[in-house]
């Protein structure tokens, strides 16, 4: 007995993987997070499929329905937004399903962090600038572990991607400043990345809170912070990688000495 947990991608129905789409189209039962997953994607399910919305369900109700359908011999596709591994609340589902003898196969999806980076045309890991990306969230009603406070993570001064933090930007700004970040540090905010109504805001750390209020952004926003988001990088010749450096030898190419 198996359930497929499928990442739907960030919004654009074409950003689901080929494998995920095939499983969705073949499933007898499709359960999806209707508050986040594009209805155009769910419309690709076969006509006779049972389609269930999960936004109004609690954990036990949701898992109970999945268990019932699987034990009837039906194939079930559980559709999550983005990539299920990031804030997907899938572990709690898998624990209960395992107790019923049901195995879960996870099909990865495109995370909103990468859709947001694509929308602003950013590489998040720039040679000689930053080689690390921290994916996290600000602490609100859901606490974070003591060793993962934003101020402490920001002390690394790398690129930081903030999920689920649109209503906490005043706190975000203060924690970044407490970690030593400059007011002019570039910030990019992408609301509903890859959706038709996608909105991109470029600002700075000092301007972040005001920008969010001015645009009325309170949900569905990815906040990307750090100097990798500097739009002026596109006008510079610096920060080149070794990968394509003609003087650098690697497994597939012998470098040449500079003239």
Note down, in words, how this protein is organized.
The chain is an alpha/beta fold and 259 residues long. It is 25% helix and 20% strand. The chain is built from 8 helices and 10 strands. The chain has helices spanning 18-26, 39-42, 59-71, 91-99, 112-120, 150-154, 169-178, 208-214, and strands at 2-7, 29-32, 50-53, 76-80, 103-107, 133-137, 159-163, 186-191, 199-204, 221-225. The strands form 2 sheets. The chain has a 5-stranded parallel sheet with strand order 3-2-4-1-5, sandwiched between helices. It has a 5-stranded mixed sheet with strand order 6-7-10-8-9. β6 (133-137), α6 (150-154) and β7 (159-163) form a beta-alpha-beta unit. The protein starts with a strand and ends in a 34-residue tail after the last strand.
